[in-house]
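pls design
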């Protein structure tokens, strides 16, 4: 008879396999760094520049997500599948809808707070990312709880930075997001997005290096 630990381990298997090579985390890290770069370009250029057009943001975001998706698939096809095989876990409709519903609710709540309330973007992002990462990644891989701790402590530290320092990062007072948000809010978001992207990306990179060292592709797989 299976123990509770064995059942839980089986339920966590899809999470472990999806991020067995660290590409899940690396993709999230690159995405956050990309958003940080786009936000910095908006905050550092005149309001009339190409970067501050609403369409430019969506085009850049779409291209970035396409590149990340195709890049991750290419690496998995060339590196992961020859070593550990291809496994596709069946997910029901509720499981497929849950991330989209959660993302939509989170985005709506974040947008509402940013527009109608005085909030700290680093604190809000930390409250969203830390539990989400803990539930989605760290539960399946024990040492990832160290990454959770780094994300929690770092987000708290960024949220506590002086307002003047955060405002100095957003130089153009009328550019991009600063036409809608205060300079310190923009600075807080830029630092937090950079921090989250770098931290999760490094965690994924460590996983990838360990995976390459501990697994070997069958001979002739690359031919």
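designed seq:
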């Amino acid at each position: 008879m299976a123990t509770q630990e064995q059942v839980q381990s089986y339920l966590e298997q899809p999470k472990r396999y999806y991020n067995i090579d660290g590409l899940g985390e690396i993709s999230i890290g690159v995405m956050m760094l990309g958003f940080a770069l786009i936000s910095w370009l908006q905050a550092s250029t005149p309001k009339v520049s190409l970067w501050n057009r609403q369409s430019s943001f969506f085009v850049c975001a779409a291209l970035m997500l396409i590149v990340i998706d195709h890049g991750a698939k290419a690496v998995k096809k060339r590196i992961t599948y020859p070593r550990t095989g291809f496994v596709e876990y069946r997910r029901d409709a509720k499981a497929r809808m849950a991330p989209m519903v959660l993302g939509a609710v989170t985005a709506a709540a974040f947008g509402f707070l940013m527009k109608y309330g005085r909030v700290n973007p680093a604190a809000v992002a930390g409250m969203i990312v830390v539990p989400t990462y803990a539930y989605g990644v760290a539960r399946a891989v024990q040492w990832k709880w160290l990454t959770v701790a780094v994300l929690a402590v770092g987000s708290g530290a960024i949220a506590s930075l002086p307002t003047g320092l955060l405002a100095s990062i957003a130089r153009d007072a009328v550019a991009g997001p600063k036409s809608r948000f205060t300079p310190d809010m923009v600075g807080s978001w830029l630092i937090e997005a950079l921090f989250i992207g770098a931290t999760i990306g490094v965690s994924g990179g460590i996983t990838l290096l360990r995976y390459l060292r501990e697994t070997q592709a069958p001979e002739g797989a690359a031919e």
